[in-house]
Amino acid sequence: MDMIPDNITSSPEWNLIMPEQPILFAQHHHADYLDELIEFLRIPSVSTQPDHGGDVAAAAAWLARAMSAAGLENVRLIETAGHPILYGDWLHAGAGRPTVLVYGHYDVQPPEPLELWESPPFTPVVRDDFLYARGASDDKGQVYVHVKAVEAYLRTLGRLPVNVKFLVEGEEEIGSRHLHSFITANRDLLAADSALVSDSSILAPDRPALIYGLRGICQAQVDLTGPSRDLHSGSYGGGIDNPINVLGHLIARLKDERGHVLIPGFYDRVRPLTADERETLAQFPLDEAEWLAEAGAPVAWGEPEYTLVERLGARPTLDVTGLIGGYTGVGVKTVLPAQAQAKISMRLVPDQDPAEIIALFERHVRAVLPPSVTATISFGGGSPAALLETNTPTMRAAAQAYEATFGRPPVFMREGGSIPVVNQFAGDLGLPTVLMGFGLPDDRIHSPNERFYLPNYYRGIETVIRYFDLLGSAAD
């Protein structure tokens, strides 16, 4: 992979380029854009909870209407065995103009725990230039940026400088269960020259960033069963192995206290960081004190052989994300529980194979568990890590669009999160992807009080307008 080229972000001449009419239109419609986004956010499209199935469908229908109103054509909801996929396009840019496939998702994470929200999660509220609601940053606000950028062009100039196709799913938060088969079966429909994804963050309100690396992911669940029923701890304690105790010992044999994963073979295929990339990552402007303050944590932690920046984006992880077992109500209950459960999330880096990691995980778990429990191990799917080329026309255009809008060039960074579809765009469709995010690190996505910084919502629309203009101009 090419490392960041010296000339990719230094382009002062682009500060003079401005598709005036679409940007002025967008600037005069901020109030409308806010009202529309608030309406979108009121729909509790929680894909993981069956009782919200109707809400997920309602969010898809709402966005379909908004896309049609913006001027996109052939807008339709495509049913799957789960939640619908939304498609729309505008393909009149002319011969030789590139086609951009815009991807996003309209489903959101569960809002629980509700008691930690300062305002109801599906009653959007603006406080100090932030819009608070579940899905505000991840990903309704960011996907709506693209709809409004298209609308600004079509309402003013009557055309776009590029062709666009929209692919918006309702299952990203549950592993994109039906998206892979849809893309595989619809290569012609989704054919394009590049993909554009806004489902990530920049460094700060005035510090844009382009992501060139994403970690992959594997998710597992371990259910342990000991006795056939809960047992009195006085009568059976010391004679029956407690599944929660067994689970604790298992977790201790998955990862040590310094952050090293203990599964044999887990690191075998990890691509080592080169000296050049370590030098590049060392230049990343992460203020550890500010980062800790934002996280609300006392100290940083992890593999001591690697820097904090390296651990956050370029090293694999294993974390317990949920534990269930025993009595957790008020007071005490003196029983040995019959069952215990752990949810495990593993973030992967190049060149780890999710299927191989899953096999190694299961082999290790079964090897260390005692005969006093039986185990059911299930997996929630996985996706490999992604590394994107930085010295490409689309990346250069994205960097120049950011710089023209924010007044400073973007930083290039590796992101610790995962966007599984990026690999499929490359593998099935042959598309280079640009990850053009507009969220902030402290948007609290997946947590109570999620929010989206409104000035960057509006800057995001202008950035996408400029990006389309640069791609179209390059084809002239």
CATH topology group of the largest domain: Aminopeptidase
- Rg: 24 Å
* Structure summary, number of beta strands: 18
User: How much β-strand is present in the residues?
Assistant: 15-25%
Domain Peptidase M20 dimerisation: 212-371
Protein name: Beta-Ala-His dipeptidase
GO molecular function: dipeptidase activity; metal ion binding
Organism: Candidatus Promineifilum breve
Output the keywords.
6-stranded mixed β-sheet, Aminopeptidase, alpha+beta, 476 residues, 2 domains, disordered N terminus
Q: How would the blueprint of this fold be written?
A:
Elements: H1 20-27, H2 30-41, H3 53-70, E1 73-78, E2 85-90, E3 99-105, E4 125-127, E5 130-132, H4 136-156, E6 163-169, H5 179-185, E7 194-197, E8 209-214, E9 216-225, E10 231-232, H6 233-236, H7 243-252, H8 275-282, H9 288-295, H10 308-313, E11 317-325, E12 335-336, E13 339-348, H11 354-368, E14 374-383, E15 386-387, H12 393-406, E16 411-415, H13 421-429, E17 433-435, E18 451-453, H14 454-474
Parallel strand pairs: 3-6, 3-7, 7-17, 8-16
Antiparallel strand pairs: 1-2, 2-6, 4-5, 5-18, 8-15, 9-13, 9-14, 10-12, 11-13
Helix pairs in contact: 1-4, 1-14, 2-4, 3-4, 4-14, 5-13, 12-14
